């Protein structure tokens, strides 16, 4: 086995542990926290209620304490309707970790081990890291002007469709109404 091709992944609270480990141990080639993340003290659900005033969690156990050291490639895999791990907590994590990352949010994915290990996203990500040394897709820009959102990506794979998943609701992300809208896909350099 090639030790340089070993990654770490975890589902649900295992995703929280993965988020912690990737800021501590730099030997992994990649990390895939599924659902779980850090910054839970600020979450508007049971974790925020349990951890909000827990100083030990915030100063010692929250993955955010060490995520600024996580330089490895990371796939953050979840779904917009997750009741346990809010997307704003996840976003705080991937904005803190300086390594390359991808975010895959699958509407209707559900929360559980089968739902977490079934999507091909994590396998494609891991394969791209061990073969090419980088994620197969990376967002290079995003902007919103006059109610029009546009984003650009570089990709080693052909993209065949685009969908915008959005919400205008506020509050806990898992309780918001998420809308899927068709998006125009333009490809250059293929």
Number of strands: 8
Helix percentage range: 25-40%
Mean pLDDT: 94
Coarse shape: globular
Beta-strand content estimate: 15-25%
> How do the helices and strands follow one another from N- to C-terminus?
EHEHHEHEHHEEEE
Largest sheet: 4 strands, parallel
* CA-based gyration radius: 17 Å
The N- and C-terminal alpha carbons lie at a distance of: 35 Å
Strand line-up in the sheet with most strands: 1-2-3-4
Low-confidence stretches: none
Summed up, the helix count is 6
Helix vs. strand class: alpha/beta
Throw out a few tags for this protein.
single chain; 190 residues; alpha/beta; four-stranded parallel sheet; two-stranded antiparallel ribbon; 6 helices; 8 strands; 26% helix; globular
């Amino acid at each position: 086995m090639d030790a340089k091709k070993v990654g770490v992944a975890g589902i649900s609270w295992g995703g929280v542990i993965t988020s912690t480990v990737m800021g501590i141990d730099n030997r992994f080639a990649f990390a895939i926290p599924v659902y779980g993340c850090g910054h839970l003290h600020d979450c508007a659900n049971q974790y925020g209620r349990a951890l909000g005033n827990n100083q030990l969690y915030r100063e010692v156990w929250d993955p955010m304490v060490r995520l600024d050291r996580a330089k490895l490639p990371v796939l953050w895999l979840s779904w917009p309707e997750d009741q346990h791990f809010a997307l704003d907590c996840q976003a705080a994590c991937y904005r803190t970790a300086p390594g390359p990352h991808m975010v895959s949010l699958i509407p209707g994915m559900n929360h559980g081990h089968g739902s977490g290990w079934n999507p091909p996203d994590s396998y494609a990500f891991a394969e791209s890291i061990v073969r090419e040394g980088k994620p197969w897709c990376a967002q290079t820009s995003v902007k919103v002007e006059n109610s029009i959102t546009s984003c650009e990506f570089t990709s080693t794979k052909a993209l065949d469709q685009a969908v915008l998943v959005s919400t205008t609701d506020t509050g806990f992300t898992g309780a918001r109404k998420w809308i899927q809208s068709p998006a125009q896909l333009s490809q250059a350099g293929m």
